[in-house]
Amino acid sequence: xxxxxxxxxxxxxxxxxxxxxxxxxxxxxxxxxxxxxxxxxxxxxxxxxxxxxxxxxxxxxxxxxxxxxxxxxxxxxxxxxxxxxxxxxx
Length: 90
Prior knowledge:
Elements: H1 2-6, H2 19-27, E1 33-36, E2 41-42, H3 43-55, E3 59-62, E4 76-77, E5 80-83
Antiparallel strand pairs: 1-5, 2-4, 3-5
């Protein structure tokens, strides 16, 4: 996990509760990204907020850079990166 986060240097970690709250901080321009290297969130945690991120020019991907897929058979989202701009994913 630390290796993944180190790719984003320089960075500052801001512990926050709730996926919606974290994405809200990105939308409000208070944070640049939300990185969760491991699975654990449900489809319902990201499906709506992803619309906001994409509307502002951001991107939501899995840890390999693929767009998140919301499939009813897979109710848990794998690790992901959400950034306010697409260049955070390169």
